[in-house]
Amino acid sequence: MGAGGSKSQQRSSATNFAVPPSPVSLFTSSSILSGSSLSSSSKTRCDDSTPPPPPPPPGGAIPPPPPPSSSDPSSQSLPIEDGTKSSSPEEDSIARAAAAASAFINPGPYEQAPQDLKRLVMLDTYDGFRCDINKQLSPYMAVVHSFWLGTNMIPDGRRRTYTWLTQVADETSLYMARVDPDRLSVDGRIHKALLGGLAMAKLQVGVSADGQSDQCLLDVDVNGPSWAGNFKYGSMGGGTVYGCSFHQGITPNLSMGGEGMYVSANGNMISSYMVKYSMPASGDPVDERTLGPRRPGAPLPDGPSSTFLAQFAPGSPSGLPLSLNYKRIVTPNRVTLGAELACDPFTLASNVMLGAEFKFSRSKLQVAVDGSAKIQSVLEAKLGKEPGQPSLTLCAEVDHLKDEMKFGYGLSIDG
C-alpha cells in the first residue's frame, strides 16, 4: 500500500510539474481554492522568487540552470560586455562641438528681406472693382483674365483696364507673358534655374507702342550656404543699368546686406544698406488645430518671434533715408503686429506707421494707420470651405486731414 501510494504520488507530482504554472495562475488558483491542500502547495511555490524547474524525464539530460533574475544582487554587480569601446576625450570634445554647432541658413535675396515687414504697414488698397479669373489649363499652364473697372488710380487717366496673363512653369523654369490691349503693351518674364539650382537667371522684357516704357533687364541670383547675391544688367529709361546686391547671414538670427545700382540715363547712383535680426518671443505656442488646411508634409509655422530691420538708403525718393521696421508674431498664423519709423537724421523729419494682421479660418483682416491719421484696411474672405473657392476682397482708405476716401472691392475666381 505504501509502495503503491508513493508511486501514485510520484506520477501525480510529475503530472503537476509537466507544465510549470505561472505565478499569476497559481495566485488565482490559491485565492479560489483557499481551503484545499493544492492551495497551500501553490502558495508555498508562489512565495519563492523563482519556481524550481520540473524534474527531468527518466534517462533525459539535465537542463541548464535558469538565468539569474534581475533581483539577484550578485547578477547586478556583474558588468555587461557589449563589445563597444569607450571613446577618448578628444573624440568626445569633437562630437560635443559638432552637436553644438548650428548650420547657417541662406537669408534669401536682399530685395525680399524687408518685404515681409513692410507689407504689414503698406497695404494694397484700390478703388473701383477688380476681378481676376484664373484658369488652370494643364498642370504646367495657367491663364488669368484681370479686369479693373471704375478706378481713378491709372496714371494715363483711363477708368478701366483689362490684361491677359499666361504662364508656363515646371520644376526648373518659368515663362510668363502679360498683354494689355488698350496700351498695346507686352511684358514678359523668363526664369531659369542654373547649376543645379545654385543660380537663377531672370529675364524681364517690356515693349509698348510709344516706346517710353521699353526695358530689358537681366538678373542672376546666386545662392550660397549662408549668403545670397544678385547681379543686374540691362536697359531701362533709355540708358544702361548696372546693379548688384549681397545678403550675408552672420548668425542664424542676424543678417546684413547692401545693394547698389547705377542708371546711366540720369547718372543716378542708388544704394541701400540693411541689418535684420530675429529672436524668439513669449506668446501662445503653435496649435495645429487652428492652422486650417495645409499641404501634406508642410512644416509648422514658426513660434512667436520678434524681428527688427534697419535700412538706410541715401537719396530715397520719399526724402526719409532711414527706416526702422518691427514685426511681432503674437500667435503663429493668427495675429501679427508691425510698425515702421521713417526719418531723416539731418532734418529730423519723420513718419510713423502701425499695422496689424489677423488671420481666421477662412478670412484675413489687415489694418494700418500712419502719423497723418490715414487709415487703411483690407478684408479678404473665402466664399467656401473647399480649396479653390472664390475669394472676396473689401478695401478702404480714409485720409482725415485731406478729406479723401477710397473704397474698392474685388473678386478672385479659380477655374
TrEMBL record:
It is a multi-pass membrane protein. Residues 1-94 are annotated as: Disordered. It is found in: Membrane; Mitochondrion outer membrane. GO terms for molecular function: protein transmembrane transporter activity. Keywords: Membrane, Mitochondrion, Mitochondrion outer membrane, Transmembrane, Transmembrane beta strand, Transport. The keyword Amino-acid biosynthesis does not apply. This is Eukaryotic porin. It comes from Nitzschia inconspicua. The lineage of its organism: Eukaryota, Sar, Stramenopiles, Ochrophyta, Bacillariophyta.
